[in-house]
Amino acid sequence: MLPIAVDAMGGDNAPREIVEGAKLAVEELGVPVVLVGQAEAIGDTGGLEIIPASEVIGMRDDPAQGVRRKKDSSLVRAAEAVRDGKAAAMVSAGNTGATMGAALLRMGRLKGVQRPAIATPIPVPGQTPTVLLDAGANAECTPTYLLQFAQMGAAFATARYRIKEPKVALLSIGEEETKGTALVKESHALLADSGLRFVGNVEGRDLMSDAADVVVTDGFTGNVALKTLEGALKFLVGAVFDAFNSSEEAKTASAVILEALAPVAAELDPDATGGAMLLGVEGVCIISHGSSSARAIVNAVRVAGEMVDGQLVDRLRGAVAAA
Amino acid sequence: MPAETHVERGPLDRQQVFELIRERLADILEIGPETIAEGSSFTDDLDADSLALIELVEALEEELGERTVGFRINDEDLEDLKTVGDAVDYVVARLAQAS
């Protein structure tokens, strides 16, 4: 396999955690990795090759302008490595919009796909995750976009979680098809007639359940839903730990409970999901969250390798073309 | 790949610039070229977002940069281009400056 290009400069903990994760990925998974970035900032690579890139697109840079102006940035060079056949896939924990822009402008859009979408796995303890898309790439969408997101999301769920016929749902404010915005109602009609295993509308509370394998929405709503879940989970975990530490009695009792909670916590750990996937471009592109640890990068590299082996891009091409 | 309108590599006239923009835009937005007119608004009529416009800009720079050395579209100018016709006028003017 060609190496996975890892953007060494992207993310809150870059380059230290990213480089550490890349080294661990090679050690633990045996997947080849090439780092992209500034050699002097990266430091000891542990023998990994570097694709040099002198610039960095910052977390606050405008995505489209960043890609246009910083042509020697690690993000742009990583996407070019995939385009030029030097890397099998790219992974970045950097600026999400710029990652999407670099992938779109350098790798190119899949023929037939109107707009690429970000697919984020939402953990569901004891089950395969729910794939939520679009999680933020396209704030405003048309019903045709949502239909294509459903087709790509279903193909991704099959490739990633080996679900033969994924249950696809539309995010709304009620199960009834008469509820929701004009976009939701029109998209419902298209999905019902799509040939996908469409199970109708679901609500936000169903995201962390087995109601659907793929949940489709516009990028604005999807991002709000995702961030709401993240915030709620963070609050809940904090509140539980506060309660555990509230008295000596609670501390003693928590020693027993913590052991039982550990597997649940592991399933909910965002570092374990392997990151979000950009669907609809001519290559595998993983967008890891900004605060990615070395462990998150290992998982992202693992998923990237699996998706290259699983011919994700061909599956997506087929899913959209067959419609 | 050069557009069919560019088999003869002489200076482009306004109509040829319009056809080139229409062709590239149709490809980017996955819509029929016949749905794109000079009066079409990028956002209101064509649902083109900022990344779609950057895709168009890069496609035009690649295509026209090969023909006209120094052809470039300034990112700062993009905000002023509201319709396809605005883009055609802009590109025609930039080509004239570059040649």
Draw up the topology in text:
The complex is a heterodimer of chains A (323) and B (99).
Chain A: E1 4-7, H1 16-29, E2 33-37, H2 39-42, E3 49-52, H3 63-69, H4 74-83, E4 89-92, H5 96-107, E5 117-122, E6 130-133, H6 143-161, E7 167-171, H7 182-192, E8 197-202, E9 214-216, H8 219-244, H9 248-268, E10 276-279, E11 284-287, H10 294-309, H11 312-321
Chain B: H1 14-29, H2 50-67, H3 84-98
Structure explained in plain terms:
The complex is a heterodimer of chains A (323) and B (99). By secondary structure, chain A is of the alpha/beta class. Chain A has a domain at 1-110 and 280-311: Isopropylmalate Dehydrogenase (3-Layer(aba) Sandwich), CATH 3.40.718.10. Helix content of chain A is 46%, strand content 15%. Chain A has eleven helices and eleven strands. Chain A has an eleven-stranded mixed sheet with strand order 3-2-1-4-11-10-5-6-9-7-8, with helices on both faces. In chain A, α4 (74-83) packs parallel to α5 (96-107). The two termini of chain A are 31 Å apart. The mean pLDDT of chain A is 94. Chain B contains three helices and no strands. Chain B has helices spanning 14-29, 50-67, 84-98. Chain B has a single domain (4-98), classed as Orthogonal Bundle (Non-ribosomal Peptide Synthetase Peptidyl Carrier Protein, Chain A), CATH 1.10.1200.10. Mean pLDDT of chain B is 85; it is low at 1-7. Chain B is globular and about 35 Å long. The chains are: A alpha/beta (323), B mainly alpha (99). At the A-B interface, α3 and α5 of A face α2 of B.
